[in-house]
Every structure is written in C-alpha cells, then in structure tokens.
Amino acid sequence: AYQSATEELDQASRQWQSGQSVGYVGNIKSKKFHLSTCSSVQDIQQSNRITFATRAAAVKQGYSPCKVCRP
Questions:
Q1: 54 three-state secondary structure
Q2: Residue 52 burial (CB < 10 Å; 0-12/13-18/19+)?
C-alpha cells in the first residue's frame, strides 16, 4: 500500500520512540541521512534527528547519504 511521506515519517517516529529499529536517521541541520547503525548517529543531537523508514523517503525529503555508512 502507498504511504504518504508524512505517514511514513509518523510511523518511523513511533518506531523510534518505542525502541524498535529504524532504517535511517537524518540530521535536520546537515540534511544528511545515515543507517541507524552508523557511528555518526550518536553525534546528532536528539532535537536534530528525523527518522525515515526507507532510503527513498530520505532522498525525497532532500537528504544526502552519509559518506561513512553509505546508506
């Protein structure tokens, strides 16, 4: 089923808050996104984090892939 970007972000946010793994984490300030397992994620302030369920969702929102984890 098709999900809008907003629905996808809401779902990913709920997963993040409930402690479930999230596929991708973005930095709102740098507009970069990372695999949730990337070491760079720990350096992102909580207030600057956004989660994405898919790589396509991150790219669609204008985020660039991290050069460390290469999502």
A1: coil
A2: buried
